[in-house]
Design a protein that fits this description.
CATH class of the domain at 420-433 and 451-615: Mainly Alpha
Helix content: 10-25%
Structural class: alpha/beta
Transmembrane segments: 402-421
Bound molecules: adenosine-5'-triphosphate
CATH topology of the domain at 420-433 and 451-615: Transferase(Phosphotransferase), domain 1
Number of helices: 6
GO molecular function: ATP binding; protein kinase activity
Radius of gyration: 28 Å
CATH architecture of the domain at 420-433 and 451-615: Orthogonal Bundle
Domain Protein kinase: 458-622
Low-confidence stretches: 387-442, 607-622
Binding site for ATP: 486
Largest sheet: 14 strands, parallel
Mean pLDDT: 82
Strand order of the largest sheet: 2-4-6-8-9-11-13-15-17-19-20-22-24-26
Subcellular location: Membrane
Length: 622
């Protein structure tokens, strides 16, 4: 009965009359109350799956009596263990055959025992993500020789990663992210010959990346971000020719990027941002045809942006912000048809900003604070001098400048804009049907299960507010990102339409004063928008609640933010967007009190002066 809407509690005598029961599958329902201790009377149980519910209270110790139990999933509930029983494994020491133990996202408040390896030697999968576990990872962990998956991420573990981890020769996925682990990454990890996914991000790990890392030829995902790693990136790392994702961001790594990077032919994400990398960006990066995200931001890279970047045919995000890059932005980038995000701000670039291909959609934010970039006025750079335009263009510009009077020129420009606007409007019954400009290709994939996890099962504690078509919850993903999740109440008339409109508009618009969409989760009976989280709440609260106060400058800035957003919606896009519901509760404020306009559920897209999208709505028209 997995994945239904079953609610209520489990009968307290549940296990008494089911002597032959071998499996309980009740994962992802709305069940609550305590887990009845009588469950242990169903002594033939091999599998107990109660994850993703709202069970609370103590995990019954009697579960340890289920001697045949192989899989126990209690993840994503609100369960604890007895405060006298800090050792979480003591609960399961008699479950001799236990292979899969999932307790993630329960406030267990326990510790990992020193004798961890004496327990459960059959364990294959262990998930204690986000269980508020303290203590050190004991060296005995190396005895769990059958482990293929271990996640202790999002806990409060301290101390070093024991070298015995290298004895886990079957290990395929190791997640120790978001703890307080310190010391070096033990080179013994290179003996884990099956390791495919290693995530140690968000700790205090220091020293260097083990040189033997290239021995782990099975490695596909390597995430070491947000640590204190120093010294050069070992050359051996670039020899991992089958790796898909490398995230070493926010460390103190130095040295240059080896040209051997060109061997990583299947790499899709490379994030080396916020380190101290220097030297030139190797031309060989241009051969990485699967690369979708490349971030080298906030380093000390110099030289020019390689022309070979034009070969990064899958690139969606290119972040070179905050380096010492000089020379011109290569024209070769105009062929990158999937490029949706570009940031070359805070470098020493000069010359003309290309105007073709993806550059049509980039705004001034992509090019701020460089030495001498020039181009279109909307990019906040001076127009290019004729010399930099090449001889033919220069002649053309001269003719326009001297032959046509300014007024005539203006008329022509306005005419061209109007005609192209009309053509665009006719071609697109909605904002755009062009598959090549689908930003949702870059949206993070988020499942219903992840949303449940992020919001602790859409708990009331995380409710941010309620609107006309549903509720908005605060969520925190396992990587620490906060989001706002707008869950539509599909029973309300107009909710489907509101969802479609909001999706349609948010997926196309991009402006610093509009709330950004991160993803959508859409099934037949569940629809949610995952939005950037605005930590300072809505403007209505700031204006009318006694507990909040805005000074004049803040008020002025927020007014400018809202005006900039409206200007963009009305004029900045080929199809004007009329918000229809502008009110203080729809102006959200981020951590820096920057205003972001939200709620497009009843917005209208205008084309040829005709409203294409209209909704019956209960929300305020404003
Ligand atoms: N991205 C976000 N970050 C933080 N809080 C948010 C976010 N989105 C919405 N909220 C909060 O949730 C509340 C409800 O938002 P929602 O857009 O559903 O409805 P509303 O705009 O308040 O009402 P209506 O739908 O009637 O216009 C907002 O007022 C705001 O306080």
């Amino acid at each position: 009965m997995l994945g239904n809407h079953l609610s209520g509690t489990l009968p307290s005598d549940m296990g008494l009359f089911l002597p032959n029961l071998r499996g309980i599958y009740l994962e992802v329902n709305e069940l609550g109350g305590t887990i009845p201790a009588s469950i242990c009377n169903a002594s033939q149980l091999i599998l107990v799956d109660l994850g993703g519910n709202s069970f609370s209270g103590l995990i019954p110790k009697s579960l340890g009596n289920l001697r045949l139990l192989q899989r126990l999933n209690l993840g994503l509930n609100n369960l604890t263990i007895e405060s006298s029983e800090l050792n979480i494994f003591s609960y399961f020491s008699s479950n001799a055959y236990l292979k899969n133990l999932y307790l993630s996202m329960n406030p267990l408040n326990g510790v990992l025992p020193n004798s961890i390896g004496n327990h459960s030697i059959f364990l294959e999968e262990l998930d204690f993500t986000g269980c508020t576990i303290k203590g050190n990872i004991a060296i005995d962990i190396g005895n769990l020789s059958r482990l293929t998956y271990m996640s202790l991420g999002g806990n409060d573990l301290a101390g070093p990663i024991p070298t015995t981890i290298g004895r886990l020769s079957m290990l395929e996925r190791l997640f120790l992210f978001d703890n307080r682990l310190k010391g070096p990454i033990p080179s013994d990890i290179c003996y884990s010959g099956r390791l495919g996914n290693l995530n140690l991000a968000g700790n205090k790990l220091s020293g260097q990346i083990p040189k033997c890392v290239n021995n782990i030829t099975s490695l596909r995902y390597l995430t070491l971000a947000f640590n204190q790693l120093t010294s050069r990136v070992p050359l051996s790392l670039w020899r991992l020719t089958d790796i898909l994702v490398v995230d070493l961001s926010s460390n103190s790594l130095s040295g240059s990027i080896s040209s051997s990077i060109g061997n990583m032919k299947v790499l899709t994400i490379l994030n080396l941002s916020r380190n101290q990398l220097s030297g030139h960006i190797p031309e060989t990066i241009g051969g990485l045809i699967s690369l979708a995200n490349l971030s080298l931001a906030v380093n000390q890279l110099e030289g020019s942006i390689p022309i070979s970047f034009g070969g990064l045919v899958s690139l969606e995000l290119l972040d070179l912000f905050g380096n010492n890059l000089s020379g011109e932005i290569p024209k070769s980038l105009v062929v990158l048809r999937y490029l949706k995000y570009l940031n070359v701000s805070y470098n020493k670039l000069r010359g003309e900003i290309p105007t073709q291909g993806p550059f049509v959609n980039f705004s001034a934010e992509s090019f701020m604070s460089n030495d001498a970039l020039c181009g279109l006025i909307r990019l906040n750079v001076p127009p290019c001098k004729e010399a930099s335009l090449g001889p033919r263009k220069a002649i053309g510009v001269s003719i326009l400048k001297y032959v046509l009077p300014t007024l005539g020129l203006t008329i022509i420009v306005v005419f061209v804009v109007l005609v192209s606007g009309k053509l665009h409007g006719k071609k697109n019954s909605k904002l755009s049907n062009n598959k090549d400009s689908m930003p949702w290709l870059t949206w993070r994939r988020i499942s219903h299960q992840q949303l449940l996890q992020a919001t602790e099962g859409f708990s009331e504690n995380n409710l941010l507010g309620e609107g006309s078509f549903g509720s908005v919850y605060k969520g925190r993903f396992l990587d620490g990102t906060y989001v706002a999740i707008k869950v539509l109440n599909l029973e309300l008339e107009g909710a489907f339409k509101s969802f479609d409109i909001e999706c349609e508009i948010l997926q196309h618009v991009r402006h610093r004063n509009l709330v950004k969409i991160i993803s959508v989760c859409s099934n037949i009976d569940f629809k949610a928008l995952v939005l950037e989280y605005m930590s300072k709440g809505n403007l209505e609260m700031w204006l009318y609640s006694n507990a909040h106060c805005l000074n004049m400058l803040q008020r002025l800035n927020i007014m400018i933010d809202v005006a900039a957003a409206l200007e963009y919606l009305h004029l900045g896009y080929s199809t004007p967007i009329i918000l229809c519901d502008l009110k203080p509760s729809n102006v959200l404020l981020d951590e820096d009190m920057v205003g972001h306009v939200a709620d497009f559920g009843i917005a209208k897209l205008l084309s040829d002066g005709i409203s294409l999208t209209q909704t019956m709505t209960m929300a305020t028209i404003g």
